[in-house]
């Protein structure tokens, strides 16, 4: 090897090392801010299902808000925060394996529904309205089935639930390579951070099941919301067990006994949701005894561009009970 070639290699190595050091510094700074955002903003209770973390917002009639994949109490409050301004008390637990909630043996949507009932008992809440988003819709539906006396009304927002014509594991992450990549990303804060920093559009499509062009067309506010949702999946390592459970349950869920859901149900989705929840929303609304469907032509899994109308619909629906 010539002296010139050696110098080139040394220069490239130094450049890569310097770039890595800068990236690592930015990552550590961001993670400090991420953990500061979560600190002190939730409570925990001990139940037969282990530790259950939760947070509350607002005053008024209680609504149990169940977050989707990549969430926790923080995502739930961000997702449904507008409801508090309509006069509701939001109770937002972290599901099994998310943040400070335990991950019990044989975790499932059914067991999760029972853990919600235990939490409500600790809070002396006998009857609540329930809102479940995305993968959280499964345990919301099970709560309505298993604890009907506690469930006054049920809202299913982009529900990752069963429908006869919904493809198993439908998402933007198609193929074994993409699936393996998702699993790798979900176990590493640094890799996840790199992904949302360097290729935010790809991460939005794969994890938030919304075409970047749809978000772009919806305007600056929706672009900011999408970036915030991605960023607030961090620390992904503290949510990995819950996320991986969601891939097993929400990817190809069985049909539930929808006929046993006796409370009124509102199902909301968009036709271009890459997770295929439009089919699930339509099927569920048609199968329950008292269902209503709101389906938007566009918006993706984030319902981008429809937020104001979505929360008006939900507040109007809950206001009937």
List the helices and strands and how they pair.
Blueprint: H1 3-38, E1 43-47, E2 50-57, E3 61-66, H2 73-84, E4 88-93, H3 109-122, E5 128-133, H4 136-146, E6 151-157, H5 176-185, H6 189-198, H7 200-208, H8 212-218, H9 220-231, H10 240-249, E7 265-270, H11 277-287, E8 291-296, H12 307-318
Parallel strand pairs: 3-4, 3-5, 5-6, 6-7, 7-8
Antiparallel strand pairs: 1-2, 2-4
Helix pairs in contact: 3-4, 6-7
CATH homologous superfamily label of the domain at 43-168 and 244-318: Alpha/Beta hydrolase fold, catalytic domain
First-to-last CA distance: 79 Å
Instruction: Kindly identify the CATH topology of the domain at 43-168 and 244-318.
Output: Rossmann fold
Poorly predicted runs of 5 or more residues: 1-17
Strand order of the largest sheet: 1-2-4-3-5-6-7-8
**Succession of helices and strands:** HEEEHEHEHEHHHHHHEHEH
* Form type: globular
CATH architecture of the domain at 43-168 and 244-318: 3-Layer(aba) Sandwich
- As a whole number of angstroms, the C-alpha radius of gyration is 21 Å
Q: With helices defined by DSSP (H or I, 4 residues minimum), what is the helix count?
A: 12
């Amino acid at each position: 090897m010539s002296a010139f070639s050696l110098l080139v290699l040394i220069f490239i190595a130094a450049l890569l090392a310097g770039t890595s050091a800068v990236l690592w510094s930015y990552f550590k700074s961001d993670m400090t801010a991420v953990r500061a955002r979560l600190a002190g903003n939730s409570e925990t209770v001990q139940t037969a299902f282990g530790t259950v973390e939760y947070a509350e917002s607002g005053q008024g009639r209680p609504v149990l808000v169940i977050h989707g994949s990549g969430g926790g109490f923080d995502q739930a409050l961000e997702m449904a925060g507008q409801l508090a301004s309509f006069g509701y008390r939001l109770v937002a637990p972290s599901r099994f394996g998310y943040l400070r909630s335990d991950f019990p043996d044989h975790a499932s949507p059914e067991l999760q529904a029972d853990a919600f009932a235990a939490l409500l008992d600790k809070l002396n809440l006998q009857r609540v309205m329930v809102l479940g988003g995305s993968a959280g819709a499964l345990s919301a539906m099970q709560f309505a089935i298993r604890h009907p006396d506690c469930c006054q009304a049920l809202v299913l927002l982009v529900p990752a639930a069963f429908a006869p014509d919904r493809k198993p594991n439908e998402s933007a992450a198609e193929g074994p390579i993409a699936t393996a990549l998702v699993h790798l990303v979900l176990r590493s804060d640094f890799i996840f951070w790199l992904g949302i920093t360097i290729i935010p559009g790809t991460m939005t499509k794969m994890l938030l099941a919304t075409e970047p062009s749809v978000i772009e067309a919806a305007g600056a506010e929706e672009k900011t919301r999408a970036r915030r949702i991605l960023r607030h999946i961090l620390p992904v390592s503290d949510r990995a067990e819950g996320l991986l459970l969601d891939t097993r349950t929400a990817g190809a869920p069985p049909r539930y006994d929808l006929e046993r859901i006796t409370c009124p149900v509102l199902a909301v989705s968009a036709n271009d949701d890459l997770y295929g929840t439009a089919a699930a929303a339509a099927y569920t609304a048609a199968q329950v005894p008292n269902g209503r469907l709101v389906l938007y032509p566009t918006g993706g899994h984030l319902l981008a561009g429809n937020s104001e109308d979505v929360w008006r619909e939900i507040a109007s629906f809950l206001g009937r009970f």
